[in-house]
């Protein structure tokens, strides 16, 4: 189950960075906490190389936490708009220095705006 989580985290992070390429330059350690029935699994995700290891990430700048069952679905199917919605409505939570969180939000929003523009110009 744990190795499974490592693969899911790597895949979800890779897809997210592919959808928001401007974040590929971001060097950061993220703590990922997945809450299951009565237990919390902790992982360390190092960006941009997508190195995922099991255990606490004491050097993490940003901490992301969510229920394990929710993460499993998001890791398999989630796209950037789904992740934005998850953080907006509290299914997933992020904490860390405000400037890091704001930067990530700003870059993601800019990418979504570019995608909307691309779709709008294709329909004309």
List the helices and strands and how they pair.
Elements: H1 2-19, E1 28-35, E2 40-47, E3 51-54, E4 62-67, H2 68-77, H3 80-88, E5 93-95, H4 98-122
Helix pairs in contact: 1-2
Report the sheet with the most strands, covering strand number, pairing sense and barrel closure.
5 strands, mixed
Coarse morphology = globular
- Strands across the major sheet, in which order? 3-2-1-4-5
Question: SSE order in H/E notation?
Answer: HEEEEHHEH
CATH class descriptor: Alpha Beta
Q: Strand tally, please?
A: 5
**CATH architecture assignment:** 2-Layer Sandwich
For CATH, the homologous superfamily is named as SCP2 sterol-binding domain
CATH fold name, please?
A: Nonspecific Lipid-transfer Protein, Chain A
The domain count comes to 1
Fraction of residues in β-strands:
15-25%
Poorly predicted sequence stretches spanning 5 or more consecutive residues = none
SS class: alpha+beta
Mean pLDDT: 92
Termini separation: 48 Å
Helical residues, percent: 40-55%
Number of helices in the DSSP assignment:
4
Gyration radius, rounded: 15 Å
Protein architecture, described:
By secondary structure, the chain is α+β, with helices and mostly antiparallel strands. It has one domain (2-122): Nonspecific Lipid-transfer Protein, Chain A. Helices cover 50% and strands 23% of the residues. The protein has helices at 2-19, 68-77, 80-88, 98-122, and strands spanning 28-35, 40-47, 51-54, 62-67, 93-95. The protein has a 5-stranded mixed β-sheet. A hairpin with a 4-residue loop joins strand 1 (28-35) and strand 2 (40-47). The radius of gyration is 15 Å and the shape is globular. The mean pLDDT is 92.
């Amino acid at each position: 189950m744990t190795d499974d989580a490592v693969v899911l985290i790597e895949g979800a992070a890779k897809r997210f960075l592919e959808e928001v390429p401007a974040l590929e330059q971001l060097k950061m350690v993220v703590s990922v906490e997945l809450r299951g029935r009565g237990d919390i699994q902790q992982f360390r995700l190092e960006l941009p190389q997508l190195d995922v290891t099991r255990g606490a990430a004491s050097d993490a700048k940003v901490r992301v936490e969510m229920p394990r069952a929710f993460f499993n679905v998001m890791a398999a199917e989630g796209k950037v708009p789904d992740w934005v919605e998850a953080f907006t409505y509290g299914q997933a939570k992020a904490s860390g220095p405000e400037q890091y969180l704001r930067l990530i939000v700003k870059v993601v929003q800019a990418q979504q705006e570019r995608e909307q523009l691309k779709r709008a110009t294709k329909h004309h």
